[in-house]
Amino acid sequence: MTSQRSRFLDATALTLGFAFLYLPIVILVIFSFNASQLVTVWGGFSTRWYAAIWQNRQLMDAAWMTVQVAAASAAFATLVGTLAALALTRYVRFRGRTLFSGLVYAPIVMPEVITGLSLLLLFVSLGIDRGFWTVTVAHATFTCGFVAVVVQSRLVTFDRSLEEAAADLGAAPAHVFTRVTLPIIAPAVVAGFLLAFTLSLDDLVIASFTTGPGSTTLPMRIYSQVRLGVTPEINAISTLMIATVTVLVIAASLATKRSAAAR
Q1: DSSP class of residue 213?
Q2: 34 bridge partner residues
Q3: Which of 237, 244, 180 is nearest to 51 (CA)?
Q4: CATH at residue 143
Q5: For residues 140 and 209, is the Cβ–Cβ distance under 8 A?
Q6: DSSP of 10-55
Q7: Of 111, 184, 233, 255, which has the fewest beta carbons less than 10 angstroms from its beta carbon?
């Protein structure tokens, strides 16, 4: 009896927890197909707002800018984060290791408003015009620590004997890395890239500090429109963002499982 009651309480708590997390998202997706212009009044099923998105030039330009920034910053963050993870894993003791690891992980725990403000002051002091590249550099700075954490977690359990065997067979260090190390840690690298891409896609605070004319990101555009009132177009573009992130997460999960099965 006690066991059944415990299972019932656990199931109830789990259901309420998932409802709290995902019910608002489900409601947003449902109302993105609302025919009415009022987001709180259901007027029938319609896909008119998805068609309206393509005619909204400002939203489309902001979406394209966001994808470009996310892809560029994620690529740079993946490169830097992977190298940082290799340094922290392979070189356990070197002068300045504590400072280096602190610099790598600081953006993870630093409030975004502090990161954005500090980068803004840096760009202003250097006389750099704010735009696409400043937002890209800011997002790469913010996300490289996350990539380093993901890749480092894979390198910790890496079997170094595989690299030693390749080296004993005459492979150069570059070939050892490209033919042995990188394929094995590739799922972690891809996961780090997708995490950095998602964080950049979602960022509002840092982009608000480091953006300039003609480089408005989608979260900034949505926030500026929401301040004047939520429209069904916002629900539609938000649903598309949710679908994009979901597809990327599923793709990364499938790639990881295939890699594990192949090993």
Answers
A1: T
A2: 45
A3: 237
A4: 1.10.3720.10
A5: no
A6: HHHHHHHHHHHHHHHHHHHHHHTTBSSSSTTS---B--HHHHHHHH
A7: 111
Instruction: Return the closest-CA partner of residue 129 out of 137, 102, 72.
Output: 137
Please check whether residue 42 lies inside any domain of the structure: no
Q: Mind listing the pLDDT tens digit for each residue in 224-233?
A: 877 777 777 8
pTM beyond 0.70: the answer is yes
CA 211 to chain centre: 19
Is the torsion defined by CA of 89, 90, 91, 96 positive or negative? Answer: negative
Q: How far apart are CA 139 and CA 201, in angstroms?
A: 9
Distance CA(232)–CA(24), nearest Å, equals 15
The DSSP secondary-structure symbol of 177 reads: I
Q: Is residue 3 part of a domain?
A: no
CA 91 to chain centre: 28
pLDDT single digits (tens) 70-97: 999 999 999 999 988 888 887 777 777 7
Q: Are 116 and 139 in contact (CB under 8 A)?
A: no
Cα–Cα dist 151/88, whole Å: 11
Q: What is the domain range of residue 172?
A: 56-261
Domain-located, residue 8: no
pLDDT in tens, 206-249: 998 988 887 888 888 888 877 777 777 888 888 888 887 788 77
Structural domain count, the chain: 1
Within a domain: 123: yes
Q: What is the C-alpha end-to-end distance of the chain, expressed in Å?
A: 45
